[in-house]
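haha ok so turns out i had the wrong file open the whole time. this is the CORRECT one, sorry everyone. sequence first:
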Amino acid sequence: MPLWVLISVASAFLQNGRTALQKTLTPRVGIVGATYARFLFAAPWAVAVVLALLWYRGIGLPRIGVTFVLWALVGAVAQIAGTLLLLHLFSLRNYAVGNTFARTETVQSALLGLILLGDRMHVLAVAGILVSLAGLVLLSASRGLAGGAMNRAAALGLTCGASFAVAAIGYRAASLSLPETGEFLIRPAVTLAFVTIAQSVMLTVWIWRRGEGGIRAVLREWRLESLVGAAGMLASLGWFTAFTMVPVAQVKAVGQVELVFNWLTARFAFGERPSLRETTGITLVCAGIVLLVLGA
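then structure:
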């Protein structure tokens, strides 16, 4: 089995754990606070990994150019937006369904490629998109919210997925713009450290300007947030590494295994019982993504 597949599966598992911890944290510090904690407490871990790798290889920091900075910032802003939307989804839907909406980024990438770039799709890819959309309709209507597939939760989820898709593309471009170092972990690790520091600074300024004591509230929960940061850093390092090895769409497709972890976490950790319609919707989304990959 290719190394990038193993890395992607491990990242999906770690990301599920981090998201579960964030869900526990959100009632204590709010949506913005939980998002802030994710990046603030991941940054020190990311910097430590970079320093350890550079020391181990006996080399200096790779040259960072304008292209790297621009793509990394695009990814950083898009990821903040996606994380805020994802955490807000938890207040509208249950845990497993909220994450499923965010995973539509793979399908959205295929549609945008067709519309904007004229990319041709195999019949299996078209079938995959239709099957995934059917799953989303089931999920959207699973609790009788007004408007069916056009309700607020669906719109937020689709926007969330688009944000994560843009973030992944930005991170891949930023990482690949760095010079080769002979160590496959250094480029993604440097990208991750830069991004988490930038995100921490952006959110610190934002929360400070709001003047609601949000920073103090976050720091009071440092024990739980340290776990969130460590899990988030390891998951992100895995994603960034896989992005430098193969195209984003392939990594994201394998990463859909997180839906299984989400369902298990919702069932056994939070005691939630997804309905038959919700379970069917999640299954259709996963099946559609498999067809999409087979037709790629």
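Residues 3-294 form one domain.
again sry for the mixup
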